[in-house]
C-alpha cells in the first residue's frame, strides 16, 4: 500500500484521489472517497463474532434465588484452616463452587466474595457430602452440555437449570461405562485441549479418560501429578487440588509445570490480604466499576480481553466468570499499562507507549524473541490511543486523538496512511467483530456496523460497558 492512499489494491473501486488530498476531499454520491475506500478494505475482511451469552439468572450461579450475603467470619475460618475440599467446579453461570461436607461455597461473579450455604438448599436430592463435581458445557447440545453432575459413592446426579434431570440418580458405571464409583475428582476436557470431548475422572493414582463421543474409558497413570481431592478447568487451564494447595497440569500427559504446588488461598479463595485478590487494585479490579478501559482486543482464537491499570479481563468467558488478572499471568514478562492492542496472523500485538510487544497466540501466549521494540520501527507510528483489526484481514486501523490511519500489515516496511477524522474527540480502546466496530470511551461504548458508518456518520448513542460486556446490574 502506497503512502497517502487508503486503498491501493486492484480490487478497490476507482473512486479518485485518496485521503492525502484532505481537506477538501472529493465526494462520491455524498460520501467522502476516504470513507468509501476504508469501507472497501473492511468489506474484504472477515471478523469473529462477539461471544453472545444468555442473560444471567437472578442470583448469579445460585439456582434458587438471590445471592446470599458474604459471611466474613466463615470466610476467615475457611482461610485459616488447612482442610481440604471434597469437590470443586464451575456453575452454569461461571461462578466457582467449592464443596466441603454439608456446605457449598460459591464465589461472586467479580470473584472477590465467597458465601456459604447448605448443599441441600440447592441440591436436596443428594444429601450428605459429595465425592466429585463436574460441569459439562457445549453450544451445540445445550440440554446435554449445560449440566452439573454431582458424584457420591456409586451414584451420579445430573442437574440442568437447578432441576434434577429425569432418570437420575444413576449408577456411575451406567452413565459413564468403565468409570468406577468412589471417585476423588472429575473435570471436563475440551476438544481443543484433549483432541476430543473427554472427561477426566480421578481415583487414587489412576486417571480414567472417558471419551464422550465413543463412550469408552481409558485408564492412565500420571505419577508426576499424584492423587487429587478435586479438579477444575478454568480459562483453558487444568488444576488438581489437594488440601489447601493446587497444581496445574497438562490434560494429555499429566505433566506439572515448574513453580507448583501453590496455595489455593492465594489464587482461588479471596482471603483478605493474600494472593491476587488484591484490595489495592480498587476500581481497576472491579469489572462493574466505571473506570475506563485503556485497550481491548479480540484475537484470532476468539478470546476477547479488556485492559486497565496493569490488569486484564476476559470478556468472552462468562461461563468461567469475569476476573481481573495481572498482565504477566497471561502475557509472561509484561508489566505496566497497555495503551492499544490488536491481533493478526496468529500474533497478538500489545502497545505500551512508544513500544510494542508481540506474543504468539495459542493455548497460551509466548513473547516473540527481540520484543519489545520501537513502535515506529514496527508500524510506522510513534504512538496510538487504540487499534483494531478484523480477523483474517491484514488491515490495521490505528486511532490517535480524533483521527484514524490505515496500515497494511503485509507491507515491508510498514507505513501508516494519512489521518482521516473520526466523529469522536478521543477513544480509549477499539475492537472489530462480526457485530461491527466498537469504540470505547470512559464507561461507555459506541457500536458501528462498519468503518464506513463510523467515518460517515455522526456519533451514535452510547451504551454501558459494564452492563453489556460484563453483565453488571444497571
From TrEMBL:
The record's subcellular location field reads: Secreted
Q: What residue spans do the Hemopexin repeats cover?
A: 127-179, 180-220, 225-271, 335-382, 424-472
A GO cellular component annotated for this chain's UniProt record is: extracellular space
- Pfam families linked: Hemopexin
Signal peptide start and end residues: 1-47
The record's section on Gene3D superfamilies has: Hemopexin-like domain
Swiss-Prot/TrEMBL keywords: Disulfide bond, Glycoprotein, Repeat, Secreted, Signal
Matching InterPro entries: Heme_transport/Cell_adhesion, Hemopexin-like_dom, Hemopexin-like_dom_sf, Hemopexin-like_repeat, Hemopexin_CS
Q: Please state what the protein is called.
A: Hemopexin
Please give the organism: Aquila chrysaetos chrysaetos
